[in-house]
Write a structure and sequence with these properties.
mainly beta, two-stranded antiparallel sheet, globular
Length: about 375
């Protein structure tokens, strides 16, 4: 059976569980939340090569509900549809340009499943989840586009996991030890790995992830932190050499964490770090990135956001036969202003500067309109 067939069968199974959990078990009482979210985005890359696009992105249908013991969520959206034009020859010289063009090159499918899972809510101190959900590698990975402060995710997440972040089918066990004044969550996740493309280097046989999350404070003033470790075999674990298949233990590890502080609704800041250690047949690549976000909301209808990032801490390649080299270091700065004329509509203007040792600077301009219907 092909990987795609297995994925489709799993999604149909989870969809059945989702419908059953919300509507059938039990029929007596459940709370159902339906929403339609979407956004259009105008983007311009200005530098050595100029590139402009108008996109319909993330038109998303979402349903979630609880029937007491179970909580279920289903989310489908369309693959971004792009109208784009060029004012010069376009190359993949810039890392940002490359990732954006890869998404705009044309989808294989029109619709795609985002989150689709069923989770228990009736057991004390622990929760079990099965389905398709985000990996627990920090708030910036799982935060939906409507709730983000910027058009895209931080550079380190886009670099390692793609524009949609770390999202895959799997199971999760969450533990909640009883503590008096703060919340501690311990998570273990096992993912199928069939479509995880860490850094575009192929898929995993399995991906395992462990995380610890802590949240403290009150509704207006609070904070928290999380730490995670993810690992699995990468695509180079099975390779051909001399006409025979050699099975090698080539793993990729991810380490990282983030911390945040909020003084709602006026101020929010967080800092995150992700490092990847990737073992291939003849080399070892170790690279990571640090990012921070600051949001200031001087009024109820406007907030400003700043995100400085450095990717390439560390940035080392070691060869099996000896020798090493350093990879290009990248600095990215994003500045955004978001206007909220109503609770369900946002307009965002953003500038991102991408400065890499391996290519010329790139300026990216975004104009985004976001809506939600509930």
């Amino acid at each position: 059976m092909s990987t795609k067939s297995k994925e489709n069968n799993f999604c149909f199974f989870i969809l059945f569980l989702t419908i059953y959990s919300i509507f059938i078990f039990p029929l007596r009482s459940f709370a159902l939340d339906l929403s339609v979210r979407g956004n259009s985005l105008f983007a311009g890359f200005v530098g050595r090569n100029n590139y402009f696009t108008l996109s319909l992105r993330n038109l998303e249908l979402s349903a979630s509900g609880s029937s007491g013991f179970f909580f279920a969520k289903a989310q489908v959206d369309i693959v971004p549809q792009n109208l784009y034009f060029f004012t010069g020859a376009v190359t993949n010289e810039s890392p940002v340009m490359g990732s954006f063009l890869g998404e705009a090159s044309g989808p294989e499918e029109f619709f795609r499943v985002k989150e689709l899972f069923v989770s228990t809510r009736g057991f004390p101190f622990f929760r079990f989840t099965i389905g398709r959900f985000y990996g627990a590698i920090g708030d910036s990975n799982s935060r939906q586009f409507f709730d983000r402060f910027f058009v895209e995710r931080p550079f380190a997440i886009r670099k390692f996991f793609g524009q949609d972040g770390f999202l895959d089918e799997g199971i999760e066990l969450s533990l909640f030890p009883p503590l008096p004044s703060w919340t501690l969550e311990i998570l273990a996740q096992i993912f199928d790995g069939s479509e995880i493309s860490f850094g575009g280097k192929g898929s995993y046989e399995f991906a395992y992830l462990f995380s610890i999350k802590n949240v403290f404070g009150e509704e207006k003033v609070g904070g928290g932190f999380s730490l995670f470790w993810a690992f699995g075999k990468n695509a180079s674990s099975d390779r051909l050499k001399g006409g025979s298949t050699i099975i090698s233990d080539n793993f990729t590890d991810f380490f990282g964490g983030d911390a945040f502080f909020a003084f709602r609704p006026f101020f929010y800041t967080n800092i995150g770090y992700i490092i990847r250690r990737m073992q291939e047949p003849s080399l070892l690549i170790v690279e990571g990135g640090i990012f921070s976000e600051i949001q200031i909301a001087p009024s109820d209808i406007f907030y400003a956001s700043l995100r400085p990032e450095i990717f390439g801490i560390p940035r080392l390649v070691e060869y099996e036969g000896g020798g090493s080299k350093t990879l290009p270091q990248i600095f990215e700065l994003s500045i955004a202003g978001t206007l909220l004329p109503s609770r369900d509509i946002k307009f965002r203007l953003q500038w991102t500067g991408n400065f890499s040792e391996g290519s010329r600077p790139q300026n990216i301009f975004y104009l985004q309109a976001i809506f939600e219907i509930r």
